[in-house]
């Protein structure tokens, strides 16, 4: 009892747990309850009850309210669908001039807007794509098909790969010096020689539209939020949800609004990439010291100059992290948006994964990752570029890069011309190496996979079975065994103990939304997979981070590794695990673990780094051993920052769990994927996405509140 | 006398939501306590003064005394809640945005305590920044900035980034930047407070050298009374937003207006602050010796000479006319007398 009096918080937590378990044992599993698998849920079952809300019929399995809450929000997806449909087809019809038919036509406003947006995006993508690969569409956009037929010479020829490769090397040299140039040249040459040129350029053209647009939008909205409290307040909740919303879930509504293709992919990418950009812009601008702003004012800046010459450059560290995030998201989406018909490497990757052709998938994945790293490094170098005012340069020196590019242009075209003569009847390898004519290592990898399977099949299978039967199944059963009321009590109680009434209310609202949706069971499965992933990731991440922190070089090395891994599009992680474990839950979980370990490791290192060196010295002078210092000084102080890492780990894990639906899981992700091929999937997809986002937000709220309190307690910032 | 460069007429700055209405209701009689009870904080309370051309006014006060706020009102980084401010006869508070920017681009320069350099620009780019903002082309502005680099003695470091410089060097950049547009009015907000004592002294000397050369109209903010005495033509001492006393260093030391001011002056070595003319007798007696001292000499420099005389010493002006006399006992009284703990 003494002990409990000393730690009143501990007593409260114990009480909460006791109540939770008491509820779990008190409420029996209803006899009619079963976890419904797959297609069965789409078939009308005579055992279901129905209720009508706002004219929508909602069907559900009725259980005791304590066991599972009735899906009172079941009407929401239908309502979202109807609203979208109404917006697109019936709302605000207006007269619009139609260029093709030369007459006015009545069209709903939203449809007209989305169609115009679509046309604009398509034009941008086609323009870049045809500069790189050649084609007709751009010229058609300015003239017409008839004109093209009449003038068969009118066609953008496209650039030979030699020019693009050399050009990107020159650009890289100008931005970041020799090292970057060599990397750029090698990466581009690799892509070409291995026959991935066309899909790579398609992906690149998609990125070159999506990334700058996301950057501009994110920056402008960030500035708007910085300037006006009202804009910020309006944006903030949307940003929070969008940050934790899985990317799959956005696909479906966008499909309805913008149709299928690269343009829709660009718009979705922007929807996903803009929120982190806004947040980081806002964060950076906020951190600009007031005296720097005053210095700008006193230098006579007008508002425009103050923003673009003083505030944004001073905040550029955070804004650059934003750019990095934008690029990351763009590449991630380049793969995911292949689901809605974006062309390029992503499409090839999905196709190869579908056919279980691991070798091909690996090649495509490698190309995406190479381009992602290259663009990331180039944008970073561009932002850190320094101008030399004092070099007294002549014309040639000043323009050497442009002149050199001009030269390369001529050489490349001449080479391509000779190539067209030399490779008479086949393909012109000096212009473009066709997709199936490059060097391919796919067979090698596939054989490797086969070999691994043949050799280690017994062991892998044994491990797989053990993991599933001994660990995963029981854990999953435990999660599903929780009565809804007990879960609610646990979550709300935790909210109250950590953050008081306010936190409890927020968390309660978020949980209720999921509990009242028709997918509570699925949400539990998602949570169980994420929990497993997070626990393992945290153990690995905290250990690796702590070990690496003991040495300066290994710290730097590990942070670099994290950087590179983070640049890989999330889908790429599925390739090696499918290679080893085939199509099982184990594969998904291992991908989750690998992906989520990145933030866990990074934040551990950064947290330990943030411990002031003065304290470090003070501890050493008090004669502590290395271990004492670690456990008594560094861990307690770094812990709040490490908990933020846990937050990121959870979000990453949730994302990967949802993406894992591609391999096949039985959680919310499975339904989101299903909604993709459903005509009326928009509402379901969006609601499911919100559910996943809310799972993330529940943890986010709890952890953030705790960290803020703890930081205040420790007096850190 | 010509028109003052800076002129303030009962300037108020009050922070809080309904500051303006409260100020109107107070009718010129602002009491910090009642304001605070109503959620308003008084930054500057009824400040009236003038600064004439080429003069250096040092505003001295402890932190929270409103000295920085006063400076920000005069540079209009914040808008004063009440009162009038004139810069060379222009009503500052009635300027529109464009006129204000014009004024800052051509007439004002400011140095900040934390240097406030732009981290992404090199030394020379930082200094050229106000010029480029003005619209001067790159080549010309960089040339001009290089002149300023030399003026503050940073040649050879023009391509360094601020993070690569020491505090003193960073503040030299800040000074050079504020001088780049050749402003008439120079604001300095605790420019040397963040520096080490040795560097601070060096920078003060450097600053006096610059001022001798440039003859700007200066408002200098500091919380260091010694610094104020060393640099100022006149000192304004602030407390709780009110200017307690505004006078020459000598008068502040000799005749502190309030108890608060007197506390500051107690520990001041007077022989280092006062000039002969501050303590001399303006009536000339007959018993004058051969020694003559200049009236603008600091006491410390001539004390030994005077004290070794038995007779009264003649005080002369620059034209060698006798304008008064000084007696060795007067020197002893000034230096050692009148202090609380010596009595």
Taking Cα atoms only, what radius of gyration of chain B do you get, to the nearest Å? 23 Å
CATH architecture of the domain at 454-481 and 517-712 in chain A: Orthogonal Bundle
N-to-C span of chain A: 37 Å
Mean pLDDT of chain A: 84
Structural class by secondary-structure content of chain B:
alpha/beta
Radius of gyration of chain A: 28 Å
Biggest sheet layout of chain B: 6 strands, mixed
Total number of strands of chain A:
4
Oligomer type: heterodimer
Number of helices of chain B: 15
The count of domains of chain B is 2
Distance between the termini of chain B: 43 Å
**Which pair of protein chains has the largest interface, and what are the residue counts?**
A-B, 21 and 37 residues
What this model shows, in words?
The complex is a heterodimer of chains A (717) and B (343). Chain A has 717 residues and is mostly helical. Among the domains of chain A are: 93-143, no CATH class; 194-385, MetI-like (MetI-like fold, Orthogonal Bundle); 454-481 and 517-712, MetI-like fold. In chain A, 75% of the residues lie in helices and 3% in strands. Chain A contains 29 helices and four strands. Chain A has a two-stranded antiparallel ribbon. In chain A, a hairpin with a 2-residue loop joins strand 1 and strand 2 (56-60). The longest helix of chain A is centred in the middle third of the chain and has 40 residues, at 442-481. The radius of gyration of chain A is 28 Å and the shape is globular. Chain A starts with a helix and ends with a helix. By secondary structure, chain B is of the alpha/beta class. Chain B has two domains: 54-68 and 96-270, P-loop containing nucleotide triphosphate hydrolases (Rossmann fold, 3-Layer(aba) Sandwich); 271-342, CBS domain Like. Chain B is 39% helix and 23% strand. In chain B, the strands form three sheets. In chain B, strands 6-7-8-3-9-10 form a six-stranded mixed sheet, sandwiched between helices. A four-stranded antiparallel sheet of chain B has the order 2-1-4-5. In chain B, helix 5 crosses helix 6 and helix 14 crosses helix 15 (328-336). Classes of the chains: A mainly alpha (717), B alpha/beta (343). The A-B interface holds A 289, 291-292, 294-295, 297-302, 305, 309-310, 313-314, 316, 386-387, 389-390 and B 72, 75, 77, 97, 101-102, 104-106, 108-110, 112-122, 124-125, 129-130, 133-134, 138, 142, 159, 174, 177-178, 181, 187.
């Amino acid at each position: 009892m003494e002990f409990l009096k000393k730690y009143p918080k501990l007593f409260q937590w114990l009480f909460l747990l006791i109540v939770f378990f008491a509820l779990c044992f008190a409420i029996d599993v209803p006899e009619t309850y079963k976890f419904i698998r797959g297609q069965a849920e789409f078939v009308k079952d005579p055992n279901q009850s129905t209720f009508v809300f706002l004219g929508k019929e909602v069907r559900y399995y009725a259980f005791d309210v304590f066991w599972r809450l009735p899906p009172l929000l079941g009407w929401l997806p239908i309502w979202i669908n109807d609203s979208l449909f109404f917006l697109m087809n019936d709302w605000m019809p207006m007269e619009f001039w139609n260029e093709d038919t030369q007459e006015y036509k009545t069209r709903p406003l939203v449809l007209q807007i989305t169609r115009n947006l679509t046309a604009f995006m398509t034009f941008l993508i086609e323009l870049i794509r045809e500069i790189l690969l050649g084609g007709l569409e751009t010229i058609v956009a300015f003239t017409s098909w008839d004109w093209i037929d009449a003038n068969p010479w009118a066609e953008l020829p496209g650039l030979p790969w030699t020019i693009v490769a050399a050009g990107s090397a020159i650009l890289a040299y100008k931005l970041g010096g020799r090292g970057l140039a060599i990397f750029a040249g090698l990466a581009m040459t690799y892509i070409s020689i291995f026959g991935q040129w066309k899909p790579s350029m398609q992906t690149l053209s998609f990125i070159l539209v999506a990334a700058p647009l996301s950057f501009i939008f994110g920056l402008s909205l960030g500035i708007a939020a910085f300037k006006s409290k009202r804009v910020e307040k309006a944006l903030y909740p949307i940003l929070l949800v969008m940050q934790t919303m899985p990317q799959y879930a956005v696909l479906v509504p966008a499909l309805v609004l913008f149709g299928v293709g690269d343009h829709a992919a660009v718009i979705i990418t922007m929807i996903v990439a803009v929120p982190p950009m806004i947040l980081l812009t806002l964060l950076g601008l906020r951190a600009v010291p007031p005296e720097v702003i005053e210095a700008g004012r006193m230098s006579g800046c007008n508002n425009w100059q103050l923003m673009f010459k003083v505030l944004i450059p001073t905040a550029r560290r955070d804004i650059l992290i934003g750019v990095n995030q934008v690029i990351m998201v763009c590449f991630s989406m380049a793969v995911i948006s292949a689901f809605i018909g974006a062309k390029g490497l992503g499409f090839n990757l999905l196709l190869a994964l579908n056919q279980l052709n691991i070798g091909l998938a690996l090649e495509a994945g490698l190309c995406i990752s190479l381009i992602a790293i290259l663009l990331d490094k180039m944008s970073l170098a561009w932002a850190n570029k320094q101008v030399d005012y004092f070099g007294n340069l002549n014309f040639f020196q000043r323009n050497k890069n442009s002149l050199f590019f001009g030269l390369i242009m001529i050489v490349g075209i001449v080479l391509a011309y000779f190539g067209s003569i030399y490779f008479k009847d086949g393909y012109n390898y000096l212009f473009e190496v066709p997709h199936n004519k490059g060097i391919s290592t796919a067979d090698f990898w596939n054989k490797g996979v086969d070999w691994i399977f043949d050799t280690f099949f017994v062991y892998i299978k044994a491990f797989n079975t053990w993991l599933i039967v001994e660990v995963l199944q029981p854990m999953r059963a435990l999660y599903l065994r929780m009565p809804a009321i007990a879960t609610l009590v646990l979550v709300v109680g935790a909210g109250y103990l950590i953050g008081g009434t306010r936190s409890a209310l927020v968390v309660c609202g978020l949980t209720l939304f999921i509990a009242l949706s028709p997918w509570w069971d699925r949400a539990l499965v998602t949570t169980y997979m994420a929990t497993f992933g997070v626990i393992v990731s945290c153990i690995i991440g905290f250990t690796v981070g702590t070990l690496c922190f003991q040495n300066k070089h290994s710290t730097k090395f590990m942070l670099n590794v994290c950087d590179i891994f983070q640049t890989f599009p999330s889908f790429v992680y599925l390739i090696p695990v499918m290679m080893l474990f085939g199509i099982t839950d184990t594969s998904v979980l291992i991908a989750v673990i690998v992906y989520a370990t990145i933030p866990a490791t990074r934040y551990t290192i950064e947290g330990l780094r943030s411990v002031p060196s003065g304290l470090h010295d003070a501890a050493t002078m008090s004669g502590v051993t290395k271990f004492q210092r670690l456990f008594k000084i560094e861990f307690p102080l770094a812990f709040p920052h490490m908990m933020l890492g846990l937050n990121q780990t959870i979000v990453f894990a949730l994302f990967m769990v949802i993406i894992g639906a591609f391999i096949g899981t039985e959680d919310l992700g499975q339904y989101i994927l299903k909604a993709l091929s459903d005509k009326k999937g928009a509402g379901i997809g969006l609601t499911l996405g919100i559910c996943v986002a809310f799972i993330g937000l529940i943890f986010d709220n709890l952890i953030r509140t705790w960290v803020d309190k703890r930081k205040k307690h420790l007096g850190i910032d | 006398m010509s028109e003052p460069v800076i002129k303030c007429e009962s300037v108020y700055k009050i922070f809080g939501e309904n500051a303006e209405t409260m100020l109107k209701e107070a009718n010129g009689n602002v009491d910090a306590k009642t304001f605070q009870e109503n959620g308003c904080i008084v930054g500057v309370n009824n400040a009236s003064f003038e600064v004439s051309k080429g003069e250096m006014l040092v505003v001295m006060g402890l932190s929270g005394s409103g000295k920085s706020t006063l400076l920000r009102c005069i540079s209009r980084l914040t808008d004063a809640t009440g009162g009038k401010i004139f810069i060379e006869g222009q009503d500052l508070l009635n300027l529109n945005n464009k006129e204000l920017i014009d004024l800052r681009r051509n007439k004002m320069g400011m140095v900040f305590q934390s240097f406030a350099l732009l981290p992404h620009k090199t030394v020379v780019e930082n200094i050229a920044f106000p010029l480029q903002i003005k619209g001067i082309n790159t080549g010309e502005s960089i040339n001009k900035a290089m002149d300023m680099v030399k003026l503050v003695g940073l040649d050879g470091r023009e391509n360094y980034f601020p993070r690569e410089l020491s505090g003193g060097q960073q503040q030299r950049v800040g000074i050079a930047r504020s001088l780049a547009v050749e402003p008439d009015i120079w604001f300095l907000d605790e420019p040397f407070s963040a520096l080490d004592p040795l560097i601070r002294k060096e920078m003060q000397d450097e600053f006096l050298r610059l001022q001798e050369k440039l003859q700007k109209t200066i408002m200098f903010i500091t919380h260091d009374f010694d610094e104020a005495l060393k640099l100022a033509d006149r000192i304004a001492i602030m407390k709780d937003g009110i200017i307690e006393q505004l006078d020459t260093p000598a008068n502040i030391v000799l005749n502190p207006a309030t108890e608060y001011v007197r506390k500051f002056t107690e520990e001041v070595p007077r022989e280092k602050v006062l000039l002969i003319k501050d303590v001399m007798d303006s009536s000339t007696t007959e018993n004058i010796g051969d020694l003559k001292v200049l009236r603008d000499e600091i006491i410390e420099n001539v004390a030994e000479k005077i004290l070794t005389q038995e007779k009264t010493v003649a005080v002369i002006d620059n034209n060698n006319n006798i304008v008064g006399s000084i007696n060795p006992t007067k020197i002893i009284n000034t230096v050692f007398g009148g202090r609380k703990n010596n009595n």
